[in-house]
Write a structure and sequence with these properties.
Layout (H helix, E strand, L loop, with lengths): L1 H13 L4 H8 L2 E6 L2 E6 H26 L6 H25 L18 H9 L7 H25 L6 H19 L5 H18 L5 H7 L11 H25 L9 H4 L2 H28 L10 H10 L4 H11 L3 H31 L3 H9 L1
Antiparallel strand pairs: 1-2
Helix pairs in contact: 1-10, 3-6, 3-9, 3-10, 4-6, 4-12, 5-6, 7-8, 8-9, 10-14, 12-13, 12-15, 13-15, 14-15
Length: 379
């Protein structure tokens, strides 16, 4: 996959004699000037605060579609993944804080293990093809939608500093303009793009993390106009650019781990252990435990053809937190050594989650389904 290739390239590059070239590219200052107004940031910040807006824009489109016409449109359908997602956010955060209790330097990284990288999780799930019920993919996607929404709220509430009310007012004005385009049933994307850029700059200057602008703008895109599925068209057009462009570039700029400069303390430090165990242990424990409670209590029920073993496998895949976990880590940790330790921990935990999840789902695929077992017992 492009993401893994980008990650491996970055890892090999920073641990080679050409590491200075990587660092030079990584920190190259870039400026955008329009009249007296200008922005100047290192290239990595343009990636994390600019390019990643498109990633969150795609997430916003997916959330809106699922809520309005997809698998989250029915209250009965959303109960199980919603409750599972809640457990899958609370338990990993608790595991992280358990390792970092009383440590003010690392406690603020509690949100690193709370999100699922749905692209990679579904990629792992696709390995089994038709051997896995399609309803399991729907469950995992719905779970990730709630995960993503919760993570966005966390970023907005807990990783925001120095709010500017003027900039927030400008961003709100831009959103009103986008809503107006929606109400007028405008189908040309140019005005959406221009006003969307304005909203992004305003949010960037407001103190709220700029990627939130991507989700807000996505929710102003009309679902359909005169029978034309506008939101689906935009989402379909965005998907390959995000999957093969935005996410690999982000992975390349955020996976460069200097092994030579990494101490054992960073690898086994509380932040690294909290992030790793939060993803690999806390995430599946939270998802499976909360979903099981929902089924037992009657608040939710297992979708057709899904067994408890399927649910366990999907819960393990929820521990694949690569992209958003690294994104939150970059927000939470300023010190390079601490960030690299947490980054390596996230990569290891996500890999273990993928491997164990795939193993459990392979076992589930080989096990007789409930209908098959009943038929055999009759014979």
């Amino acid at each position: 996959m492009a993401v893994f290739a980008a990650m491996l390239l970055a890892f090999a590059w920073v641990n080679s004699p050409a590491v200075e070239i990587y660092d030079l590219i990584h920190h190259t200052p870039l400026s955008l000037q329009v009249g007296a107004v200008g922005l100047s940031k290192p290239l990595v910040d343009w990636i994390n605060e600019g390019l990643m807006v498109f990633f969150f824009f795609a997430i916003g489109l997916e959330i809106k579609r699922e809520v309005l016409v997809g698998d989250l449109a029915s209250p009965r359908k959303i109960a199980l993944p919603a409750i599972g997602a809640l457990g899958g956010m609370l338990v990993p955060a608790a595991v992280y804080l358990l390792f970092n209790a009383g440590n003010p330097e690392t406690q603020h990284g509690w949100a690193v293990p709370v999100a699922t990288d749905i692209v990679l999780a579904l990629a792992v799930l696709s390995v089994l093809g038709t051997r896995i019920p399609s309803t399991l993919k729907v469950f995992l996607m719905a779970l990730a939608v709630f995960d993503d929404f919760g993570t966005l709220v966390i970023i907005a509430l807990f990783y925001t500093e120095g709010l500017s009310l003027v900039s927030l007012a400008l961003a709100a004005a831009g959103l009103v303009g986008l809503i107006g385009l929606n109400r007028l049933r405008v189908t040309h994307m140019t005005p959406y793009v221009l006003i969307g850029i304005f909203v992004w700059v305003a949010v960037l200057e407001s103190g709220v993390h700029a990627t939130i602008a991507g989700v807000l703008v996505a929710w102003t895109i009309p679902l359909s106009v005169r029978g034309r599925p506008m939101l689906s068209i935009v989402e379909t057009g965005m998907r390959p650019w995000v999957a093969y462009g935005v996410v690999p570039v982000f992975a390349f700029f955020n996976s460069g781990i200097h092994l030579a400069g990494m101490s054992s303390a960073a690898l086994i430090g509380p932040a690294s252990l909290g992030a790793g165990f939060g993803l690999f242990i806390g995430k599946p424990l939270g998802v499976f435990g909360a979903a099981a409670l929902a089924v037992v209590s009657g608040l939710g029920k297992l979708p057709p053809a899904i067994t408890w073993l399927h649910l366990l496998g999907a819960s393990l895949l929820a521990g694949v937190g690569f992209t958003i976990s690294l994104f939150v880590a970059a927000l939470a940790f300023d010190h390079p050594a601490a960030l690299q330790g947490v980054t390596l921990s996230v990569i290891i935990a996500s890999t273990l989650s993928a491997v164990t999840g795939l193993g459990v789902l392979t076992l589930a695929a080989e096990s007789p389904q409930p209908a098959e077992s009943e038929e055999r017992s009759r014979r």
